[in-house]
Write a structure and sequence with these properties.
The chain has 104 residues and is an all-alpha fold. Helix content is 84%, strand content 0%.
Length: 104
């Protein structure tokens, strides 16, 4: 009985972990696709999403994805004096350069 309970617990934990990973996957890609030009650029958005997954943490991807909906937020981060915003802006610039080079 103890063993089957432990197996069920492990399965539940793995399922939760995989589900959350799937839900988070493609944050930038989804934001790109929902933008005004994204629907016509499926391959490009997929490529940009892959670069984002390699260059940005999930938290950073969520923040950057919000910039697709509200570009003013990006401007605020760029002009911010907070170290965290400055660091994210630098990573975003590297991501953008890499995405442009890779996805062309």
């Amino acid at each position: 009985m103890f063993r089957s309970s432990r197996v069920l617990c492990i399965c539940a934990c793995l399922t939760a972990a995989l589900t959350s990973s799937i839900a988070e996957a493609g944050t930038i890609e989804r934001a790109c696709l929902s933008s005004s030009r994204g629907a016509a650029q499926t391959r490009l958005c997929h490529c940009i999403g892959q670069v984002a997954e390699q260059r940005l943490t999930r938290s950073e991807q969520r923040t950057v994805a919000s910039w697709f909906e509200d570009p003013h937020r990006a401007q605020e981060a760029r002009q911010s004096v907070r170290n965290r915003d400055e660091a994210l802006w630098r990573k975003y610039q590297v991501f953008g350069t890499d995405a442009e080079r890779i996805c062309g």
